[in-house]
Amino acid sequence: MPDEPTAFVPGHVTGFFSPAPADDPARAGSRGAGLTLTDGVAVTVHEADEPGVVLDGDALPMPPVETVLSGLGVADRARVVAESDLPLGTGFGVSGAMALGTALAANVRFGCERSANDLVTLAHRAEVEAGTGLGDVVAQARGGVPIRLEPGAPAYGRLDGVPATRRVEYVTFGDLSTAEVLAGDTDPLVRAGEAALDRLVDRPTLPTLVAESRRFARDAGLLTDRVREAVDAVAAAGGAASMAMLGETVFALETGLTDAGYDASVCRTCDAGAHLVDGG
Amino acid sequence: MPDEPTAFVPGHVTGFFSPAPADDPARAGSRGAGLTLTDGVAVTVHEADEPGVVLDGDALPMPPVETVLSGLGVADRARVVAESDLPLGTGFGVSGAMALGTALAANVRFGCERSANDLVTLAHRAEVEAGTGLGDVVAQARGGVPIRLEPGAPAYGRLDGVPATRRVEYVTFGDLSTAEVLAGDTDPLVRAGEAALDRLVDRPTLPTLVAESRRFARDAGLLTDRVREAVDAVAAAGGAASMAMLGETVFALETGLTDAGYDASVCRTCDAGAHLVDGG
Fold first, then answer.
1. CA of A143 to nearest chain B CA: how many angstroms apart?
2. Which of A236, A223, A231, A238 shows the shortest CA–CA distance to A264?
3. Per residue in B163-181, pLDDT tens?
4. How confident is the model over B15-49, as pLDDT tens digits?
5. What is the CATH number assigned to the segment(s) A1-280?
6. What is the ipTM of this complex?
7. CA-CA distance, B89 to B100, in Å (whole number)?
8. How far, in Å, CA of B124 to CA of B172, rounded?
9. For strand A167-174 and strand A248-253, is the pairing parallel, antiparallel, or unpaired?
10. Per the database record, which ranges form the GHMP kinase N-terminal domain (chains A, B) (predicted)?
11. Which residue ranges make up each domain of chain A?
């Protein structure tokens, strides 16, 4: 094989969600909706005596990645090297992307002969077990603008989508701990998330998705001051924006943040789900 | 809206299949597997007093497209203009692509506010009712290398995939009538298709997919002389090729047909499923 196998996994901002716990991590997850992004994570898997995970040049522990490698039986000889367009811990699904990209690339590198659904399931379970995400992996596997109708890995979950493609802008002010939010009282999240999903299913368009995300963030009490200010500024400039779940990150359709005077990063919704780009 | 909405739908070559009829066209379809292609069909929908369908400059009747437009309630005012990289009737799923691309683009053009699954269901039903295809639409909606585990539209069907991306070559000698083949004795197809699917699920790789496709085409008695000659020539040159279901078309991985001396068209497996490209 000339090149080491590399997978690209789109970033994913969740706009609203309701946690759906279950004893079996393949059945656990969340309902909700969000946008996958052309900004994402490229994950390469090497065979090496020194296993480990490197993200943007820094070695770091990443439990979901290690769980995926163990599930494939290659934890003692895989070195994972990832380059991310997006910061970790700020609501872009970077840890889910690392887990799913590792599954796709390691499957090729070590000839594991797993199916796409098997690899998504491995990564989804690993994320749920680590408490780092509930719905990113299945959304990132799909691409586009995923609606998560039922929680869980492919054998249990059910996805639909908003049929649209659009320019997306984002700014990040800081990180939030998914695990910490989920450890608190999640009843308001569940109520607000289910109401938002009902309304989006009734009218599956991008403007509805962003409007329901904004209502969810407010009703669930998750807006920080900096995020509220940016979201309000975009609305005042005639645009549509909301907060990424879970990070101190604001995303907007089209030129929403730029029009409001922010120095935003620019990408698009990602037409393709996670896929091998080289050596696959 | 500055531009008329346009959808791109990848081509799809089915390598093997087993028909799965049902009274409800949303539950009918086929099991099987194939490759989606970066060569495909771009479909634009205009509002016009003169409705109609134009493919590569020629007006033609296309019942699945008309059924989709009727399902969206816009048959009297939609003009569908498509450009295809691939010939019609030769096993590339062009009619499925026309139906699905029309659904995606018309949904935007006329503000129908349907979900992705709703649009796929409309197009799948229309193809099944017209007898022009059984599994192309759901495969084209997914992208990649789809395995159709269970037949039917998203509410009923079940998909997996071979996690791979690869250069694909193809040559076309002529057309075959899907409706005619399906009107014959389909028992050998069902037996050969189910056996091939079992073996691919057991080992979901591209070489398995092509090898099982070759065995299926032979066992089901569908190889024409020209197709057999090309498939054998690719194998003799060390490559992997089989026949597209249903057309007098041969597809090969990597440089298989070129290595065997054929003047082949070149594309890749398509990482993205059907999606809006403009005005969406």
1. 8
2. A231
3. 999 999 999 998 887 677 7
4. 999 999 999 999 999 999 999 999 999 999 999 99
5. 3.30.230.120
6. 0.96
7. 16
8. 25
9. antiparallel
10. 76-144
11. 1-280
